[in-house]
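Most newcomers find our protein records easier to grasp once they have seen one. A record pairs a protein's sequence with a compact description of its fold. An example says more than a description, so a record of this kind follows:
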Amino acid sequence: MTDGALPLAEGDTGTHVTDLQQRLGILNLGPLMDAPGNFGPSTRGLVEQFQRLRGLRIDGVVGPNTWSTLVEAGLRLGSRVLARRHPMLRGDDVAELQSRLCSLGFDTGRVDGIFGDQTAKALAEFQENLGLLSDATAGSATVDELLRVSARHTDTQLVNSVREREERRSSPATLENRHLGIGEIGGLGTLAANLARLLGQAGARVSVLHHPEDSGQAAEANIAGVDTYVGLRLHPSTKLASCAFYSGYSYESGPGRELAEAVALRLRPLVGGEVETVGMSVAVLRETQMPAVLLELGPTELVVEHAGALAEAVASALVHWAESAGSPK
Protein backbone atom coordinates (compact mmCIF):
# COMPACT_ATOMS: atom_id res chain seq x y z
CA MET A 1 0.00 0.00 0.00
CA THR A 2 1.24 3.51 -0.79
CA ASP A 3 1.10 6.38 1.70
CA GLY A 4 -1.36 8.02 -0.67
CA ALA A 5 -3.97 5.45 0.34
CA LEU A 6 -3.71 6.52 3.98
CA PRO A 7 -5.34 7.26 6.27
CA LEU A 8 -7.97 4.54 6.30
CA ALA A 9 -10.96 5.03 8.56
CA GLU A 10 -14.45 3.76 9.21
CA GLY A 11 -16.57 4.16 6.09
CA ASP A 12 -13.73 3.51 3.62
CA THR A 13 -13.97 0.69 1.09
CA GLY A 14 -11.78 -1.02 -1.47
CA THR A 15 -8.69 -3.18 -1.92
CA HIS A 16 -6.66 -1.18 0.61
CA VAL A 17 -9.21 -2.03 3.27
CA THR A 18 -9.08 -5.69 2.23
CA ASP A 19 -5.29 -5.62 2.63
CA LEU A 20 -5.71 -4.09 6.09
CA GLN A 21 -8.25 -6.71 7.13
CA GLN A 22 -6.02 -9.56 5.95
CA ARG A 23 -3.10 -8.23 7.99
CA LEU A 24 -5.30 -7.85 11.06
CA GLY A 25 -6.55 -11.41 10.55
CA ILE A 26 -3.03 -12.83 10.60
CA LEU A 27 -2.53 -11.39 14.10
CA ASN A 28 -5.55 -13.26 15.55
CA LEU A 29 -6.95 -10.20 17.30
CA GLY A 30 -10.51 -11.50 17.10
CA PRO A 31 -13.28 -12.20 14.62
CA LEU A 32 -13.88 -9.76 11.79
CA MET A 33 -17.59 -9.16 11.23
CA ASP A 34 -17.33 -6.62 8.40
CA ALA A 35 -17.50 -7.71 4.77
CA PRO A 36 -14.13 -7.85 2.94
CA GLY A 37 -13.14 -4.43 1.72
CA ASN A 38 -15.54 -2.58 4.03
CA PHE A 39 -14.07 -0.61 6.95
CA GLY A 40 -16.93 -0.95 9.40
CA PRO A 41 -17.25 -0.95 13.21
CA SER A 42 -15.67 -4.41 13.53
CA THR A 43 -12.58 -3.39 11.55
CA ARG A 44 -12.31 -0.22 13.60
CA GLY A 45 -12.52 -2.26 16.81
CA LEU A 46 -9.66 -4.51 15.68
CA VAL A 47 -7.57 -1.50 14.69
CA GLU A 48 -8.13 0.05 18.12
CA GLN A 49 -7.22 -3.24 19.79
CA PHE A 50 -4.01 -3.41 17.76
CA GLN A 51 -3.16 0.20 18.60
CA ARG A 52 -3.72 -0.50 22.29
CA LEU A 53 -1.53 -3.60 22.25
CA ARG A 54 1.26 -1.77 20.41
CA GLY A 55 1.30 1.39 22.50
CA LEU A 56 0.03 3.59 19.67
CA ARG A 57 -2.51 6.39 19.77
CA ILE A 58 -5.92 4.75 19.99
CA ASP A 59 -8.16 6.42 17.42
CA GLY A 60 -9.28 3.57 15.16
CA VAL A 61 -7.68 5.30 12.17
CA VAL A 62 -4.91 3.67 10.14
CA GLY A 63 -2.38 6.39 9.48
CA PRO A 64 1.27 5.91 8.46
CA ASN A 65 2.44 5.01 11.98
CA THR A 66 -0.27 2.40 12.59
CA TRP A 67 0.18 0.97 9.10
CA SER A 68 3.96 0.62 9.36
CA THR A 69 3.61 -1.00 12.78
CA LEU A 70 1.01 -3.41 11.35
CA VAL A 71 3.39 -4.38 8.55
CA GLU A 72 6.21 -4.89 11.07
CA ALA A 73 3.95 -7.10 13.19
CA GLY A 74 3.66 -9.62 10.37
CA LEU A 75 7.41 -10.30 10.21
CA ARG A 76 8.83 -13.40 11.92
CA LEU A 77 12.44 -14.16 12.80
CA GLY A 78 13.96 -16.19 9.97
CA SER A 79 11.58 -14.95 7.28
CA ARG A 80 14.24 -12.58 5.89
CA VAL A 81 17.94 -11.86 6.31
CA LEU A 82 18.56 -9.20 8.94
CA ALA A 83 21.54 -6.85 8.80
CA ARG A 84 22.45 -3.19 9.22
CA ARG A 85 20.88 -1.34 6.32
CA HIS A 86 20.01 2.21 5.37
CA PRO A 87 17.25 2.88 6.16
CA MET A 88 17.39 0.57 9.14
CA LEU A 89 15.30 -2.61 9.05
CA ARG A 90 12.31 -2.64 11.39
CA GLY A 91 9.93 -5.36 12.49
CA ASP A 92 8.87 -7.93 15.02
CA ASP A 93 11.59 -10.21 13.66
CA VAL A 94 14.22 -7.62 14.65
CA ALA A 95 12.62 -7.30 18.09
CA GLU A 96 12.75 -11.08 18.60
CA LEU A 97 16.39 -11.11 17.52
CA GLN A 98 17.16 -8.34 20.03
CA SER A 99 15.24 -9.99 22.85
CA ARG A 100 16.94 -13.36 22.34
CA LEU A 101 20.39 -11.79 22.13
CA CYS A 102 19.79 -9.75 25.29
CA SER A 103 18.54 -12.81 27.18
CA LEU A 104 21.89 -14.44 26.35
CA GLY A 105 23.92 -11.46 27.57
CA PHE A 106 24.57 -9.69 24.25
CA ASP A 107 23.41 -6.11 24.67
CA THR A 108 21.51 -4.72 21.67
CA GLY A 109 20.40 -1.57 23.46
CA ARG A 110 16.66 -1.13 23.56
CA VAL A 111 14.39 -3.89 22.32
CA ASP A 112 12.74 -1.59 19.83
CA GLY A 113 12.50 -3.62 16.63
CA ILE A 114 15.03 -1.35 14.88
CA PHE A 115 18.25 -2.96 13.55
CA GLY A 116 20.84 -0.33 14.40
CA ASP A 117 24.54 -0.28 15.25
CA GLN A 118 24.16 -1.75 18.76
CA THR A 119 22.13 -4.66 17.43
CA ALA A 120 24.75 -5.32 14.76
CA LYS A 121 27.52 -5.26 17.38
CA ALA A 122 25.66 -7.64 19.70
CA LEU A 123 24.89 -10.02 16.83
CA ALA A 124 28.54 -10.08 15.74
CA GLU A 125 29.61 -10.84 19.32
CA PHE A 126 27.11 -13.71 19.50
CA GLN A 127 28.40 -15.14 16.22
CA GLU A 128 32.02 -14.87 17.35
CA ASN A 129 31.15 -16.53 20.66
CA LEU A 130 29.67 -19.53 18.82
CA GLY A 131 32.41 -19.78 16.20
CA LEU A 132 30.18 -18.55 13.37
CA LEU A 133 31.15 -16.12 10.66
CA SER A 134 31.06 -12.80 12.52
CA ASP A 135 29.39 -10.68 9.84
CA ALA A 136 26.57 -9.14 11.95
CA THR A 137 24.06 -10.69 9.56
CA ALA A 138 21.21 -12.90 10.77
CA GLY A 139 20.91 -15.45 8.00
CA SER A 140 19.48 -18.93 8.36
CA ALA A 141 22.57 -20.49 10.01
CA THR A 142 22.82 -17.73 12.63
CA VAL A 143 19.07 -17.76 13.33
CA ASP A 144 19.08 -21.54 13.74
CA GLU A 145 21.92 -21.32 16.29
CA LEU A 146 20.23 -18.43 18.10
CA LEU A 147 16.97 -20.36 18.40
CA ARG A 148 18.82 -23.48 19.55
CA VAL A 149 20.89 -21.73 22.21
CA SER A 150 18.17 -19.40 23.51
CA ALA A 151 15.70 -22.29 23.77
CA ARG A 152 17.95 -23.79 26.48
CA HIS A 153 18.34 -20.47 28.29
CA THR A 154 15.90 -20.16 31.19
CA ASP A 155 16.98 -16.75 32.58
CA THR A 156 14.58 -14.24 31.04
CA GLN A 157 16.30 -11.15 32.51
CA LEU A 158 17.56 -9.00 29.65
CA VAL A 159 21.10 -7.67 29.82
CA ASN A 160 20.03 -4.28 28.48
CA SER A 161 17.68 -3.80 31.44
CA VAL A 162 20.49 -4.71 33.84
CA ARG A 163 22.85 -2.29 32.10
CA GLU A 164 20.25 0.48 32.13
CA ARG A 165 19.64 0.07 35.87
CA GLU A 166 23.38 0.21 36.54
CA GLU A 167 23.78 3.34 34.43
CA ARG A 168 20.94 4.94 36.35
CA ARG A 169 22.43 3.90 39.68
CA SER A 170 25.86 5.32 38.84
CA SER A 171 24.70 8.57 37.22
CA PRO A 172 25.26 11.85 39.10
CA ALA A 173 22.48 12.80 41.54
CA THR A 174 22.13 16.27 40.05
CA LEU A 175 21.21 18.05 36.83
CA GLU A 176 24.56 19.86 36.90
CA ASN A 177 26.23 19.55 33.47
CA ARG A 178 23.57 17.20 32.14
CA HIS A 179 22.42 17.84 28.58
CA LEU A 180 18.62 17.88 28.46
CA GLY A 181 16.46 18.03 25.35
CA ILE A 182 13.04 19.70 25.27
CA GLY A 183 10.96 18.81 22.23
CA GLU A 184 8.25 21.35 21.30
CA ILE A 185 6.44 21.38 17.96
CA GLY A 186 4.12 24.35 18.42
CA GLY A 187 1.73 25.92 20.90
CA LEU A 188 3.87 25.34 23.98
CA GLY A 189 6.71 27.77 23.28
CA THR A 190 6.21 29.67 26.55
CA LEU A 191 6.16 26.46 28.58
CA ALA A 192 9.29 25.21 26.81
CA ALA A 193 11.11 28.53 27.36
CA ASN A 194 10.18 28.61 31.06
CA LEU A 195 11.27 25.00 31.49
CA ALA A 196 14.58 25.62 29.69
CA ARG A 197 15.26 28.62 31.94
CA LEU A 198 14.55 26.69 35.14
CA LEU A 199 16.66 23.72 34.06
CA GLY A 200 19.50 26.08 33.12
CA GLN A 201 19.32 27.58 36.60
CA ALA A 202 19.67 24.04 37.97
CA GLY A 203 22.95 23.69 36.07
CA ALA A 204 21.77 21.73 33.03
CA ARG A 205 22.64 22.42 29.43
CA VAL A 206 19.39 22.60 27.49
CA SER A 207 18.59 22.12 23.80
CA VAL A 208 15.07 23.06 22.66
CA LEU A 209 14.10 21.01 19.60
CA HIS A 210 11.39 22.19 17.20
CA HIS A 211 11.22 19.56 14.46
CA PRO A 212 7.54 19.17 13.49
CA GLU A 213 7.55 15.35 13.32
CA ASP A 214 8.22 12.74 16.01
CA SER A 215 10.93 10.88 14.09
CA GLY A 216 12.66 14.18 13.35
CA GLN A 217 12.53 15.08 17.04
CA ALA A 218 14.10 11.74 17.94
CA ALA A 219 16.82 12.15 15.32
CA GLU A 220 17.67 15.66 16.53
CA ALA A 221 17.85 14.46 20.15
CA ASN A 222 20.10 11.55 19.18
CA ILE A 223 22.40 13.72 17.06
CA ALA A 224 22.64 16.34 19.83
CA GLY A 225 23.57 13.59 22.28
CA VAL A 226 21.15 14.73 24.99
CA ASP A 227 21.10 12.72 28.22
CA THR A 228 17.34 12.97 28.74
CA TYR A 229 14.46 14.01 26.47
CA VAL A 230 11.18 15.66 27.48
CA GLY A 231 8.62 16.05 24.70
CA LEU A 232 5.81 18.60 25.04
CA ARG A 233 2.58 18.26 23.04
CA LEU A 234 -0.53 20.45 23.12
CA HIS A 235 -4.10 19.15 22.76
CA PRO A 236 -5.86 22.49 22.17
CA SER A 237 -9.49 21.54 22.81
CA THR A 238 -9.17 18.48 25.02
CA LYS A 239 -8.80 18.31 28.77
CA LEU A 240 -5.90 15.94 28.82
CA ALA A 241 -2.79 15.35 30.87
CA SER A 242 -0.63 12.29 30.34
CA CYS A 243 3.03 11.42 30.53
CA ALA A 244 4.31 8.53 28.42
CA PHE A 245 7.54 6.54 28.44
CA TYR A 246 8.86 3.96 26.00
CA SER A 247 7.41 0.46 26.28
CA GLY A 248 7.43 -2.08 23.52
CA TYR A 249 7.88 -5.79 22.85
CA SER A 250 9.51 -7.43 25.89
CA TYR A 251 11.10 -4.21 27.13
CA GLU A 252 10.28 -0.95 28.84
CA SER A 253 12.53 1.94 29.80
CA GLY A 254 12.89 1.82 33.59
CA PRO A 255 14.39 5.33 33.89
CA GLY A 256 11.75 6.63 31.49
CA ARG A 257 8.95 5.16 33.63
CA GLU A 258 10.45 6.67 36.79
CA LEU A 259 10.67 10.11 35.18
CA ALA A 260 7.12 9.88 33.83
CA GLU A 261 5.81 8.96 37.28
CA ALA A 262 7.73 11.85 38.87
CA VAL A 263 6.28 14.32 36.35
CA ALA A 264 2.74 12.98 36.76
CA LEU A 265 2.94 13.24 40.55
CA ARG A 266 3.84 16.93 40.41
CA LEU A 267 1.33 17.83 37.72
CA ARG A 268 -1.77 16.42 39.41
CA PRO A 269 -2.40 19.41 41.71
CA LEU A 270 -2.22 21.76 38.71
CA VAL A 271 -4.55 19.97 36.31
CA GLY A 272 -7.18 19.11 38.90
CA GLY A 273 -7.23 15.39 38.29
CA GLU A 274 -5.35 12.24 37.50
CA VAL A 275 -2.37 12.41 35.15
CA GLU A 276 -2.06 9.15 33.25
CA THR A 277 1.34 7.48 33.14
CA VAL A 278 1.46 5.14 30.16
CA GLY A 279 3.97 3.06 28.23
CA MET A 280 3.89 3.79 24.50
CA SER A 281 5.93 3.00 21.39
CA VAL A 282 5.22 6.16 19.39
CA ALA A 283 8.19 7.20 17.27
CA VAL A 284 9.59 9.92 19.50
CA LEU A 285 9.85 7.43 22.40
CA ARG A 286 10.81 4.37 20.38
CA GLU A 287 13.55 6.07 18.35
CA THR A 288 15.27 8.18 21.03
CA GLN A 289 18.37 6.56 22.52
CA MET A 290 18.13 8.07 25.99
CA PRO A 291 15.54 8.12 28.80
CA ALA A 292 12.59 9.97 27.30
CA VAL A 293 9.08 11.04 28.24
CA LEU A 294 6.27 12.63 26.26
CA LEU A 295 4.05 15.06 28.15
CA GLU A 296 0.66 15.85 26.57
CA LEU A 297 -1.43 18.73 27.92
CA GLY A 298 -4.68 20.53 27.16
CA PRO A 299 -6.78 22.54 26.77
CA THR A 300 -4.90 25.61 25.55
CA GLU A 301 -6.47 27.91 28.17
CA LEU A 302 -5.26 25.76 31.06
CA VAL A 303 -1.75 25.50 29.65
CA VAL A 304 -1.46 29.24 28.99
CA GLU A 305 -2.82 30.16 32.41
CA HIS A 306 -0.52 27.78 34.27
CA ALA A 307 2.56 27.82 31.99
CA GLY A 308 4.86 29.02 34.76
CA ALA A 309 3.59 26.55 37.34
CA LEU A 310 3.64 23.70 34.83
CA ALA A 311 7.27 24.45 33.99
CA GLU A 312 8.15 24.53 37.70
CA ALA A 313 6.45 21.17 38.23
CA VAL A 314 8.28 19.48 35.35
CA ALA A 315 11.62 21.01 36.39
CA SER A 316 11.04 19.86 39.97
CA ALA A 317 10.31 16.34 38.70
CA LEU A 318 13.55 16.28 36.72
CA VAL A 319 15.54 17.47 39.74
CA HIS A 320 13.95 14.81 41.95
CA TRP A 321 14.51 12.13 39.30
CA ALA A 322 18.19 13.03 39.07
CA GLU A 323 18.61 13.12 42.84
CA SER A 324 17.09 9.64 43.19
CA ALA A 325 19.54 8.13 40.69
CA GLY A 326 21.43 6.22 43.35
CA SER A 327 18.37 4.32 44.50
CA PRO A 328 16.10 3.63 41.50
CA LYS A 329 12.97 1.58 41.96
